[in-house]
C-alpha cells in the first residue's frame, strides 16, 4: 500500500501551475517550459504516452516529485489497459489520483481492479469511482474494500444495484462505524413500517441521507408524525423524510407561514403535506413565487393545487409558465376547452407537448416556434 502524504484538489494544482507557467512565460520564453519538460523523463512519459498537456503533466508531477523513473508508471498503465481502459480513461484517473502511479502494480493495484471489475465497475464506471473516491486505491483490500462490497451485496441483493449505489456515493471510503450506522438506520425505518423495497430504494437513490445518525432520523420521523400529521403508515413517509432531513423546524415553519399568508387554512396545509410532502424542502422564495403565480395570476385554489405534484416539483420559469402561456392563447381562440387540465399538459415530455401543439398549427401558424421562443427566453431570464 502506498503512503498518502496529503491531498490537494487537482483543479487547484492545475490553476496554480497555469499561473506559474503564465508568469514564467511573460518573463522569459515559453520555450523554456518545453526545455524543462524535455529533460524530465516522467513528464515526457505523461505527455507522449498518455496525451497530457504540458501544464497538466506538471500538475500531476507535483504530486509525485520523487518519481524519476517511468518503469513503475508504465506497469500501472499496462495493468489498466489489461482491464480494458483506454488512454483517455487512464489519463482521467491519473489526473484525479496522481499517486496511483506509485502503487505496486501486482500487489496493490491488480487485486483491487479485479474486485471492481468482477463487481461490474468497468471503463467509465471505474473512472467515475476514482472521481468520487480519489483515494480508493489507498484503501485496504481486505480491511475496507471487500467488506464494503460484501456488505452492499448482502444488503441489495445484486451487483447492479451495488454499482449504482457506489456511483452515487463515496461508499468505498466508509469506515466500519458508518456501515454500522446505516444498519441501525435500516432497523429504525423498519420499526416505522417502511418496507424493504422503499428502504433499498432510498439507499440506492440517496445514500447520503442514510449515513446520518439514527438519532437525527428518528427525531425527523417523530417531527413528521407528531407535528405535521404524516403518520408512519403513510405511503409517502419516505418522501417526507427525505424532504425534511436537512431542514430545521424553524425553516419548515417559515414555509408554512407563507401558505397561511396566501389564505391557506391549517387543514388545507395538512392535506397538502400528506399528499405533496416534496414542498417541505423548498425555499421560502420558491414557494412565494409559485403561490404568486398560481393563486394571484391564475386564480387557482388550494384544493386545485393539492391535486398535482407537478405544481411543486417542476420549474416555474423553464417548464410551467411557457406552457401555460401558450395554453392561454389556445383558450382565448377557443381552440381548446376551458376545462383542459393544465396539470396534465405540464407533465408532458417536451416532444409530446410539441406534438400536441402541432394539432393547432393550421389555426395558428408557427405555434411551435412561438412556444420554443418563449421557452428560450424564459431560460435566459432564469
User: Largest sheet, if any?
Assistant: none
What are the segments in which pLDDT stays under 50 over at least 5 consecutive residues?
A: 1-27
N- and C-termini, Cα separation:
49 Å
Work out the strand percent.
under 5%
Outline:
globular
Q: How would you classify the quaternary structure?
A: single chain
Percent of residues in helical segments? 55-70%
What is the residue-mean pLDDT, rounded to a whole number?
86
Run of helices and strands: HHHHHHHHHHHHHHHHHHHHHHH
Provide the gyration radius in Å: 28 Å
Give a count of the beta strands, DSSP E runs of length 2 or more.
0
SS class: mainly alpha
Tally of alpha and pi helices: 23
Short description:
With 382 residues, this protein is mainly alpha-helical. The protein is 67% helix and 0% strand. It has a domain at 315-382.
What would you note in describing this structure?
The structure is a single chain. With 382 residues, the protein is mostly helical. The protein has a domain at 315-382. It has 23 helices and no strands. It has helices at residues 10-27, 31-38, 41-50, 54-63, 71-82, 87-96, 105-119, 124-132, 141-156, 159-168, 176-191, 196-205, 214-226, 237-244, 249-261, 266-275, 284-297, 302-305, 310-313, 316-332, 342-345, 350-358, 367-381. The longest helix has 18 residues, at 10-27.
Question: Could you give the topology of this structure?
Answer:
Elements: H1 10-27, H2 31-38, H3 41-50, H4 54-63, H5 71-82, H6 87-96, H7 105-119, H8 124-132, H9 141-156, H10 159-168, H11 176-191, H12 196-205, H13 214-226, H14 237-244, H15 249-261, H16 266-275, H17 284-297, H18 302-305, H19 310-313, H20 316-332, H21 342-345, H22 350-358, H23 367-381
Helix pairs in contact: 1-4, 3-4, 5-7, 6-8, 7-9, 8-10, 13-14, 15-17, 20-23
GO molecular function: nucleic acid binding
InterPro entries: MTERF, MTERF_sf
Family: Belongs to the mTERF family.
Amino acid at each position: 500500500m502506498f503512503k498518502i502524504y496529503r491531498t490537494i484538489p487537482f483543479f487547484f494544482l492545475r490553476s496554480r501551475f497555469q499561473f506559474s507557467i503564465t508568469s514564467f512565460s511573460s518573463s522569459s520564453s515559453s520555450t523554456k517550459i518545453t526545455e524543462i519538460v524535455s529533460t524530465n523523463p516522467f513528464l515526457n512519459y505523461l505527455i507522449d504516452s498518455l496525451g497530457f498537456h504540458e501544464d497538466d503533466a506538471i500538475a500531476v508531477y507535483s504530486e509525485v516529485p520523487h518519481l524519476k523513473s517511468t518503469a513503475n508508471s508504465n506497469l500501472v498503465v499496462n495493468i489498466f489497459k489489461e482491464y480494458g481502459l483506454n488512454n483517455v480513461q487512464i489519463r482521467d484517473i491519473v489526473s484525479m489520483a496522481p499517486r496511483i502511479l506509485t502503487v505496486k502494480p501486482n500487489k496493490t493495484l491488480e487485486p483491487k481492479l479485479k474486485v471492481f471489475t468482477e463487481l461490474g465497475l468497468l471503463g467509465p464506471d471505474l473512472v467515475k469511482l476514482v472521481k468520487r473516491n480519489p483515494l480508493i486505491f489507498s484503501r485496504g483490500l481486505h480491511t475496507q474494500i471487500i467488506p464494503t462490497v460484501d456488505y452492499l451485496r448482502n444488503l441489495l441483493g445484486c451487483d447492479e444495484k451495488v454499482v449504482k449505489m457506489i456511483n452515487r456515493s463515496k461508499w468505498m471510503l466508509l469506515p466500519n462505524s458508518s456501515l454500522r450506522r446505516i444498519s441501525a438506520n435500516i432497523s429504525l425505518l423498519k420499526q416505522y413500517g417502511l418496507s424493504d423495497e422503499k428502504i433499498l430504494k432510498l439507499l440506492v437513490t440517496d445514500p447520503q441521507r442514510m449515513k446520518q445518525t439514527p438519532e437525527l432520523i428518528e427525531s425527523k420521523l417523530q417531527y413528521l408524525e407528531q407535528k405535521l400529521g404524516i403518520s408512519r403508515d403513510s405511503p409517502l413517509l419516505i418522501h417526507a423524510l427525505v424532504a425534511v432531513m436537512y431542514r430545521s423546524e424553524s425553516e419548515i415553519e417559515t414555509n408554512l407561514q407563507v401558505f397561511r399568508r396566501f389564505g391557506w387554512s391549517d387543514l388545507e396545509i395538512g392535506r397538502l403535506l400528506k399528499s405533496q410532502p416534496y414542498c417541505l424542502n423548498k425555499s421560502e422564495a420558491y414557494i412565494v413565487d409559485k403561490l404568486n403565480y398560481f393563486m394571484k395570476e391564475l386564480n387557482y385554489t388550494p384544493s386545485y393545487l393539492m391535486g398535482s405534484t407537478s405544481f411543486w416539483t417542476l420549474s416555474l420559469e423553464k417548464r410551467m409558465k411557457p406552457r401555460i402561456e401558450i395554453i392561454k392563447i389556445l383558450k382565448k381562440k377557443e381552440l381548446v376547452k376551458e376545462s383542459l387540465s393544465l396539470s396534465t399538459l405540464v407533465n408532458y415530455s417536451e416532444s409530446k407537448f410539441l406534438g400536441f401543439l402541432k394539432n393547432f398549427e393550421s389555426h395558428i401558424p408557427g405555434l411551435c416556434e412561438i412556444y420554443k421562443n418563449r421557452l428560450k427566453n424564459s431560460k435566459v431570464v432564469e
